[in-house]
Amino acid sequence: MNKTGWKVTAIIFIILFTLGTLFIIWAWDYGTDLIEKENECVYNICDSEEYDAYIFDDIESICYCYKNNEIVYQEYIR
Predict the structure, then answer these.
(1) Where are the transmembrane segments (predicted)?
(2) CA dist., res. 78 & res. 76, Å (int)
(3) What is the spatial order of strands in the sheet that 62-67 belongs to?
(4) For residues 41 and 23, what is the distance between their CA atoms, to the nearest angstrom?
(5) Contact 72, 61 (CB under 8 A)
(6) Which of 49, 55, 73, 78 has a 20 to 30 A CA-CA distance from 61?
(7) From CA 41, how far away is CA 55, in angstroms rounded?
(8) H runs (alpha helix) in 1-78
(9) What's the sign of the alpha-carbon dihedral 48, 50, 56, 62?
C-alpha cells in the first residue's frame, strides 16, 4: 500500500461514520415525532368515553376513533 492509501481509507471511514450518525439522528427524530402524534390521538382526540378504540395511521397522519367497530370520528394531525 502506498503512502496515500491510509488517507483514502480514513476519509471513507469518516464519511461512513458521519452518514451513520446522521441516519441515527433522523431515525430518532422520526420515531419520537410518531410517538407524539399517536399520544395526541390517544389522549387528546379519542380520550372520550364514547369511543371504544383508536387507530393512528402514521402514513396519512389521521387519527380514527371507533365505536362498535365503526369509525365515528377522524381527524388529521399535523
Answers:
(1) 6-28
(2) 7
(3) 53-57, 62-67, 70-76
(4) 27
(5) no
(6) 49
(7) 8
(8) 5-40
(9) negative
With a CB cutoff of 8 Å and minimum separation 6, the contacts of 50 are: 67, 72
Q: How many residues does the chain have?
A: 78
Are the CB atoms for 54 and 75 separated by under 8 Å? Answer: no
Q: Reduced to 3 states, what is the DSSP secondary structure of residue 77?
A: coil
Phi and psi at 59, nearest 5°, equal -75, -45
Contacts of the segment 3-7: beta carbons below 8 A, 24+ positions apart: none
Query: What is the pLDDT tens value at each position of the chain, 78 positions in all?
Result: 567 788 889 999 999 999 999 999 999 999 999 999 999 999 999 988 889 999 999 899 999 999 999 999 999 998
